[in-house]
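Structure in, sequence out. Go:
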């Protein structure tokens, strides 16, 4: 099983590879793209400068370092594009090919069809934005030339296993650490990155210095009710997806019992808080994913510091080595993972699970 790690700076590539990453991915908001469309219309679903390389010169450096360490590099171009954006998008794809990027991460069906029609030869990975919820969708993308599919984080472990079994000629990748947004990426039309436009470097500086990361680590130790109050009443919100909302069932179908209704409401109406978008973890299910044939696990967090990325890779590498060298019962493995998390991050995991056991 391979570890896919994010980068946003050429200087961190070697450190992340040395920590155990076998694949690297990144995104770019180039000056010409930002001038035409602003960072809100990011070409890769990350609207902040701190999450992206500054341009194709940086991409060349990333590829050179990674390839010298026998590590492939994947470029995220996984937004949904308008017709007017296609000329610049195709230009950037051609630049990426010339530099030697090993694959593109794509979500837009029109882009896939264009690459196929124009016979542009490059490996294609389907983004989580492609919303692959079943094996028929995966086979559809395979027919369009995809070699890998990144499955949405909202699938159950059993559903992932079924898709992998149904599509033996495809490689599959699952999210494993960080950014556990409860919304489905491919269905999200919220506008992000607005605060960066409004506040500029004042907004970027805490991210560049990793202050926001330390702040979030501190408040995650607080009770959930307090974090919700901090977010809503003191710090406010800067994105529509952080608005508080509640969900109710107006009239339940006859085949949905009361217990199922409560489960739906519990999952749907618990609104966002400071912890909803960070530090989710699926490592307790890593052994199951390995056994079912999942090809790779993806670390989210291009905007995080190099130190955090190195920690994440080491955590996954440590657990994967343990899986290879010894056998665990399910509860024993979960205990081992949580102990390892505590040793590496100096705090408990908080049970912020991608794939909870009560699914």
């Amino acid at each position: 099983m391979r570890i896919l790690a994010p980068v946003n700076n050429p200087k961190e590539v070697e450190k992340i590879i040395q920590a155990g990453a076998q694949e690297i991915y990144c995104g770019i908001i180039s000056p010409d793209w930002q001038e035409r469309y602003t960072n809100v219309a990011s070409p890769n679903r990350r609207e902040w400068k701190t999450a992206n390389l500054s341009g194709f010169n940086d991409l060349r450096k990333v590829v050179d370092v990674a390839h010298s360490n026998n590590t492939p590099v994947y470029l995220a171009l996984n937004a949904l594009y308008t017709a007017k954006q296609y000329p610049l998008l195709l230009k950037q794809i051609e630049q990426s090919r010339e530099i030697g990027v090993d694959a593109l991460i794509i979500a837009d069906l029109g882009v896939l069809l264009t690459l196929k029609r124009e016979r542009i030869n490059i490996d294609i990975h389907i983004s989580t934005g492609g919303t692959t919820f079943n094996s028929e969708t995966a086979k559809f993308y395979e027919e369009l030339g995809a070699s890998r599919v990144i499955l949405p984080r909202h699938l159950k472990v059993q559903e992932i296993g079924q898709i992998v079994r149904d599509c033996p000629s495809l490689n599959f990748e699952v999210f494993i650490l960080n950014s556990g947004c409860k919304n489905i990426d491919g269905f999200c039309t919220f506008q992000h990155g607005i605060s960066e436009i409004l506040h500029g470097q004042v907004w970027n500086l805490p991210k560049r210095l990793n202050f926001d990361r330390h702040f979030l680590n501190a408040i995650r130790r607080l009770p959930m009710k307090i974090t919700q109050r901090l977010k809503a009443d003191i710090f406010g919100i800067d994105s529509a997806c952080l608005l508080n909302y509640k969900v109710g069932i107006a009239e339940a179908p006859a085949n949905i019992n009361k217990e199922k209704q409560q489960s739906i409401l519990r999952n749907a109406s618990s609104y966002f808080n400071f912890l909803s978008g960070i530090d989710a973890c699926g490592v307790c299910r890593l052994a199951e994913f390995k056994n079912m044939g999942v090809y790779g696990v993806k670390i989210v967090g291009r905007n995080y510091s190099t130190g955090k990325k190195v920690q994440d890779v080491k955590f996954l590498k440590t657990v994967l080595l343990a899986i290879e060298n010894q056998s665990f019962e399910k509860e024993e493995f979960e205990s081992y993972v949580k102990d390892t998390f505590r040793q590496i991050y100096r705090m408990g995991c908080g049970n912020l699970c991608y794939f909870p056991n009560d699914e």
